[in-house]
Write a structure and sequence with these properties.
Elements lengths: L1 H8 L2 H21 L10 H19 L4 H24 L15 E3 L3 E3 L2 H22 L5 H22 L4 H17 L4 H24 L1 H7 L4 H11 L10 H13 L21 H34 L3 H25 L17 H19 L15
Antiparallel strand pairs: 1-2
Length: 393
């Protein structure tokens, strides 16, 4: 009977979705690496290996209940900050600079590890605990207490954001999206939220104006790298920069556009896209499987996000709800940004497509996030005639 209960509490729907993403990832990467630019490297085998590692991470994570993660939140957050500081100070032999950024540790025999992929999850746990702790201490909710919570959330986020933004703008945007999602569900007054988001929109508009008209101000005071400006320029006018910064975008548009409704078929892609197995994997899917294939992938992400929302609503533990919200915000932004940049809806930022793009750090980070969801689902039980629906086993 006990085994039956444990099996019943296991999230089979999430497992099916992850398995489908695994199949799509392997097929798409196999096609992407067939262009010959990678030599003898077999990224499919490596992706299978990272999925196995991810499965092990989930297997460990699922048996630790959310109460333990709540206690470990600040320790993990501190560890993440330590990794980012170490990365910034590490010598070239350990953390080489690539494409003007210093984002990876080189580990002999394994490859590269990107700490920011794990810091995102640590931040979700820390912000969730911070929000719950604040709410437990506040007896009477006022605009002052809401503003205090907002200030706390902002300060905790600012530390990793400041360490990441100069090296990896894409991950910095993901961190901002995580913070935005948690602010929306934290109970902060809508008067503050509307004012905050209005100010944020105004700031974005000012930044765009400076990028287009006075980029030297951003270079001088914010130390923004010159190549980051060209991502905006090439997004707005890709034809002018087709031989330079918009080369990937033009190739992506050609690949997806040539796929039409049903695509060209497995391994029949004709458009050469550098590094197609990572950030531009959706371009490969669009070319070989067309609008239908792309729609299937997007639909799976909708199902995943819907499932995560359902889990967050089923639990009556606020910490679990906030953790799910942070994960939902992270994945939603990843999907929207990655697919958006391949079809010129958004600028190119180098954000991978979750569970499909090749990358060990990205996949392990996402599988750790899914492990937290598995844990929330596994340690949650509903009882008829009971007002308490969440019991840690």
């Amino acid at each position: 009977m006990n085994n039956y209960i444990k099996t019943d509490r296991f999230d089979w729907t999430l497992t099916l979705l992850l398995f489908l993403f695994f199949l799509i990832s392997c097929v798409a990467i196999y096609s992407a690496q067939a262009t010959g630019q990678y030599g003898d490297k077999n990224f499919v085998i490596m992706q299978v290996f990272w999925y196995i590692v991810g499965a092990v991470i989930i297997s460990i994570t699922i048996f630790i209940d959310s109460y333990q993660y709540k206690k470990l939140a600040w320790i993990l957050y501190g560890f993440g900050i330590f990794l980012l500081v170490t990365l910034a100070l590490a010598p070239e032999s350990i953390a080489p600079e690539r494409n003007g950024s210093k984002n990876w540790f080189v580990i002999p025999g394994i490859g590269t590890i990107q700490p920011s992929e794990f810091v995102k999850i640590f931040l979700i746990l820390a912000l969730s605990r911070l929000t719950v702790s604040h709410q437990e201490k506040v007896i009477e909710k006022t605009l002052r207490t809401d503003f205090l919570l907002l200030l706390k959330l902002g300060l905790v986020t600012a530390v990793p954001l400041g360490l990441i933004i100069r090296e990896d703008l894409g991950t910095a945007l993901v961190i901002i999206s995580i913070l935005s999602g948690l602010i929306l569900v934290s109970g902060i007054s809508w008067k503050i939220i509307v004012s905050l988001y209005g100010a944020g929109a105004s700031l974005v508009a000012v930044i765009f104006y400076l990028v287009l008209n006075k980029p030297e101000i951003l270079e001088k005071y914010l130390h923004v790298q010159t190549y980051q400006f060209y991502r905006i320029y090439s997004w707005i006018d890709p034809v002018t920069y087709s031989s330079g910064s918009s080369y990937h975008l033009m190739k992506s548009l050609s690949a997806i556009g040539s796929g039409l409704i049903s695509g060209k078929g497995f391994k029949n892609g004709e458009v050469y896209i550098p590094e197609a197995h990572t950030d531009f994997i959706f371009s490969v899917i669009g070319e070989e499987y067309g609008f239908i294939g792309g729609s299937v992938v997007i639909s799976l992400y909708f199902l995943l996000i819907y499932h995560l929302i359902k889990i967050s609503l089923d639990t009556n533990d606020h910490f679990n709800t906030y953790v799910c919200t942070g994960i939902i915000s992270m994945i939603t932004f990843h999907v929207f940004q990655n697919i958006g940049m391949t079809i010129q809806v958004l600028p190119i930022t180098g954000i991978p497509l979750p569970f499909i793009s090749y990358g060990g750090s990205s996949l392990m980070g996402n599988m750790f996030a899914m492990g937290l969801v598995y844990s929330i689902r596994y340690h949650h039980r509903s009882y008829m005639f009971s007002s308490e629906n969440s019991i840690n086993s």
